[in-house]
Amino acid sequence: MAEAKFSFVCGEDDFLVVRRAREIYQEMSKKVEDPSFGCEVVVGSAGNVAEVEKAVNQFTSAIECIPLFGDRKVVWFKDITFLADSVTGRAQGTLDQVERLRGALESLDPEAVSVVLSASPVDRRRIFPKWCAKNADFHLADASKPAEKEAHLRELIRRESKRFGIDIPYPLVNILMGKLNGNARLAVEEVRKLATYLGDEPVEITEELLNELVPNFGEGDFFEPVEAFFSLKLEWTLDALRRYFFNIKDPRPLLTLLQNRNRLLIQLKVLLMSGQIRRGPRGIDKASMDRAAALHAEAYAGEKGKSSFNVFSQNPWYLSRLAEPLGRLTLKELVDFQKEFLRGFREILGRPDEESEVMREMVVRCLSR
């Protein structure tokens, strides 16, 4: 196969796509003597056919306009959106422009112009992406299958940790992935935050440190009291409640989060006890989860999208993180928790000026075992 004339980066996660394309663009730019004249970025975001035509015109002009003194040029066609399975992407006018784009790429002189295209999302069933896969330096920035997404995110955390010179042990990477709910952008930011906090001090990264510094993005902003409660540590939970009520006076959002988490735990406990799903050293087994989801599909027929009422709608990494205390909790205890949350809600209605006291009493009843 002949050497590729251009690079093409695509994927579902626009953050990962732009990140990988930027790396390629910066590497290409090192060969340009004067980047201020020899490097150009063209934005490919388009909401209709007219905007598609305008973007393709700007790109073709950029690759045809060579610097005055014959220096090498680098062009990044960034944020292309018209390759998606959308109304604009399916329009005949767009398809005509995509064919025109293909012709421009085929006639490229790679000795004079280096080109990288980045697109997200992309309908990879169409002719142009398939052609790019065969003829370009092709990069799939992320993956669509859950197992592949997990591997991508794990590798991203590993690379970022190495770049910042910190070591996150494998078990803690699993915890971090569960907290981030599969979000690559958050993974980069949270690893950077950990590195900034640690500085040059030889501080060991522990689960307690992760819980202190990294929010649980799977459940919302009020994560600490929820994490503390389901760690089954009464003292931490009471401390977390004090901090919560110092900033937020309304206990109802917290009660909702506790109920949501507990509702998922009840479902997980039943599935684990019955042997319908398995939990190994790397978390909940995805294959057994898929089989159980198919078995109970009819029972969850009315639930669409992510919901605490449907355990199968949740991210497997997140569920693996949630399942950690289940070995220390019986199904009866989880049901009792749910009853206590309901009792707490009713007492708040009857004691509106003593909401923090009601919550503390509820926690003590639950965790004084």
SSE diagram, text form:
Blueprint: E1 7-10, H1 14-29, H2 35-38, E2 39-43, H3 49-64, E3 73-80, H4 87-90, H5 92-106, E4 113-119, H6 127-135, E5 137-140, H7 146-164, H8 170-180, H9 184-198, H10 207-213, H11 223-230, H12 234-247, H13 252-273, E6 279-280, E7 283-284, H14 286-295, H15 316-322, H16 331-350, H17 355-367
Parallel strand pairs: 1-4, 1-5, 2-3, 3-4
Antiparallel strand pairs: 6-7
Tell me about this structure.
α8 (about 170-180) packs across α15 (about 315-320), α11 (about 225-230) packs antiparallel against α12 and α16 packs antiparallel against α17 (about 355-365). The chain is elongated, with a radius of gyration of 26 Å. The N and C termini lie far apart (about 70 Å). The chain is built from 17 helices and seven strands. It has helices at about 15-30, 35-40, 50-65, 85-90, 90-105, 125-135, 145-165, 170-180, 185-200, 205-215, 225-230, 235-245, 250-275, 285-295, 315-320, 330-350, 355-365; strands spanning about 5-10, 40-45, 75-80, 115-120, 135-140, 280, 285. Strands 2-3-4-1-5 form a five-stranded parallel sheet, sandwiched between helices. It has three domains: about 5-140, 3-Layer(aba) Sandwich (Rossmann fold); about 145-215; about 225-365, Up-down Bundle (Zinc Finger, Delta Prime, domain 3). With about 375 residues, the protein is of the alpha/beta class.
